[in-house]
Amino acid sequence: MAPLLSLRKVDRWYPQGAGRTYVLRQIDLEVKEGEFVTIMGPSGAGKSTLLHILGMHDPQFEGEFEFAGEAVHKLPSKKRLDLQRKHIGFVFQKYHLLDDLTVAENLEVPLSYRDVKKTDRQARVADVLDRFQIVGKKDLYPAQLSGGQQQLVGVARAVIAEPSLLLADEPTGNLHSEQGREIMRLFKKLNDAGATIIQVTHSEENASYGHRVVRLADGWIAS
Amino acid sequence: MDAFLADVRYALRRLARSPGFTLAAVLTLALGLGANLAVFRAVDRLLLAPLPYPDADRIVTLGEMEARKPKSGHSTSALNAGEWRRRGRSFSAIALAHGWSPTLTGLGPAERLTAVDVSPEVFSVLGTAPRLGRPFSAADAVPGGPGVTIVSDAFFRARLGGDPAALGRALLLNGTPHTVIGVLPAGYRGPGELQAELLTNWQANARDTRASRSLRAFARLRDGVSLAAARAEMASISEQLAREFPADNKGMVAELQPLRDALVGEVRPALVLLFATSSLLLLLASVNLANLMLARGLARRRELAVRLAIGASRARIVRQLLAEAMVLGALGCGAGLLTARLTEAALAGLVPETLRGESPLDFRLVAFATLAAAGSLALFGLVPALRTTRMELRPGLAGQASTEARRLPDVLAATQLGLALVLLCASGLVLRTLTNLARVEPGLQTGGVLTAAVQLPGQRYPEAKQAAFYEQLVERLERVPGVSAAAVASVVPYGGNWDRVGLDVEGMAGQGAEAPEADRFIVTPQYAKTVGLPLRAGRFLGPEDRAGAPLAVVVDEVFGLRILNAAPFGAAEIASAKSPATRSADRLANVIGIRLKLIGRTEWATVVGVVGHVKHYGLDAESGGQVYLPLAQSPWRWMSVFVRTSGDPQALGPALRAAVAGLDGDLAVFDVATLDELLQRKTATRRLAMRLLSLFAGIALALAGVGLTGVLAGWVAVRKRELAIRLAIGARPAEVLLLVVRRAASLAGIGLAGGLLATLAAAGLLRGLLFQVGVLDPAVLGTVALLLFATAVAAATTPALRAARLDPVTVLRSE
What we know:
The complex is a heterodimer. By secondary structure, chain A is of the alpha/beta class. Helices cover 35% and strands 27% of the residues of chain A. In chain A, β4 and β5 form a beta hairpin. The relative contact order of chain A is 0.20. In chain B, the strands form three sheets. In chain B, strands 1, 2, 3, 4, 5, 6, 7, 8, 9, 10, 11 and 12 form a twelve-stranded mixed β-sheet that branches. Chain B is elongated, with a radius of gyration of 34 Å.
């Protein structure tokens, strides 16, 4: 089976004075559909950078990146963003909910950006609220939720548009252990249902929920 | 549409959560838009809205002026107008008009009315007609025929009961019956002199000559004839008349002006300046708002980055930000319409009577308001939206802004300061002008003098009785307690009327049409003492200058010097050790004994004295000089009374009326005003302009100061870590404070430089209002620059103190 995504010889660097600082070096990576992959490594290894390249937030890389048969590295900006909108859901470490919107409205926003009709949006929001058991919180604002609840909403927002790939950047980094386990169990459940997940984490415990670990060190894949 | 409504709902929610920002933004926009809308209304009424006549752009005013002195006058004589009618083909109708102020008697207390003698063509020119009765006919213009009148609708309702049976009734105007033959339409507003309570039938006066240029002419261009073609034809006719009648027409040319130009010409420069400055204020308000929106956008970078990360396109984010701006714009527009009303009241004085009246919310105003709001929106909504969304996602998610994004607020703040400087300079220059004007000697001691017009009806007061009446009136007034002096004169100084005559000077080159002109004042002997007219040489007119005595005349120093400087005069200068004033007085004494004669008269009058020059047309206006003739030798029945008191001159009003009524109860007393008031009116337009400019400048400076405070606060917030490190490694709080203040000063410096360039560029707009002050007046510029820097330092105070009070430990730990 062809992989969902593949990276070949990907480099990412920033200019520094007359030279360059490499954050990623010669990254080769393939992820199949339905896999749950964990990227680990020490601080500064390039984990988040790799995740943002995979999430198509960062186009400034060298090398080849194919996603669902599309050569992402060759796509013009608009088409790349269209591809991202269609296939990618992102979970942030700091949740990044929209503070002036209610829980329900936060869930609806990604659907409105994907031109989903209003009636369909409302139906899908109701469905996700139910699925994540947060119906009672739909009219609350993020400031009224605990950290764990906010991250729960963050995950719900990431999956509501039914992406092919779910990316999570330190999803439990701002949570205490029990909340973190709850989120990881949720990820596991989503993966069992068929979602492809790539997470970045420092936690070995979190890594154990996945199928395999990719370790980065100084921008290189160590293992 | 659905998404747009969602954006608007979200925008309203956000704005409601930031009441301080919302209020500041709405007020800013209200001030800018309000001033702009009010000034536009005045511009619209004066310059854009159609005049209230059919095909008004085909109506022109006709007059004659001296070819060598453009703007020397705009009247004509009946005989010359008759030649225009006979020889010209450019006009379908030429109407003549002469304003007068008759006293109405026999219909309640004697009342002075505004009236205008008009020729029958007037309704053809204006394209209107009486709504009741009939217009004037050719028979009404036959000399010696009965007097008839067409009354205004307001007069018809107020004084004639609105009863159509009043047609045919006779009104006694200056004792002469005038039959009411018609009523004007309710909305009638005549241009210039044609705006009067009564239109009466003009009849030629057999004594008038071609030089009797006392009539205003209005004409309608014939279909297919352009203004240029009409001007060319009239120039040709003027040449013919100058050749055929050189005594009266040599050097005179006909002048045509579109009616609108004739009505608004004087206030156009002030209005254009005001429109420019109010537009500047709107621009400044928009820039201020743009800066606020930009700062808000920078603070929302994380939110916007998240939206981009979860699938929003840049266009979608821009649309969302624009929705917020549109909501603000709509609120600001509504508030702006309210503030527009306040500013409108202040501008009312600029609009001539003809063009006043309710100007409804018509298409032009709505279009202008929409355009102004849209333009403002583009600046304060679109530019920040485009700038804010131009970000890289990862720094955006971390709440970081690019260097370029951080620089824009500085540019906008400096721009605001520059715009404020332009307005401050304009205001300062006009203030300086008013100060300069206040130092100009008006020529008279105007304090404590009350004046009022008392005109005699010709039928009851033939020439023989005119002087006697006024002399008795003066005697009565001199006996009133509180009155230190009283006199009468034919023209009120600074009053807006004038009586210019040509004078032959015996022995001087330049006679007839080339004779020098001066303003004529017919006065009683007490005049100089009453109004404080200084004597320079010889004597003033006295009781000895009676009817039958040798004719006497007094000239002013300007006219005297004109005589002396002209050939063959110019007596040898008395060069001595005497002071310039004494030398000048000695020179002026050489005028005494010279003989003068009014053009068209036979008797010579001898100059018996020289008096000071009076700034009759305004403190900054020049004139050819003044001559004074004794009433006893030049009977006149259109006189004004002057009384001087050491107390409040207004208090003499009742006594003045009583003195007139004691001599003749059927005479009206009108145009009551003090000389001080009349002088003040000469600077009314400038004072209005200064008030408005100062108001706009004050608002501009306040907006710029607030904008700068916001920018500096943002600058401190972004550099919190750097400032904390400085403090941690030994900087004193005062040094950190100075960093912020220096930044404010440097932005003010950039604003100052830009503002100076803009002021220079706008110099042309100001010149018409300035007097004895250049556009780059050092005193004004210096004061304005100091004010700008002071504002900048004041704006920096709060952010600077906040920076100086940073706790480095707390800041660095949180980083």
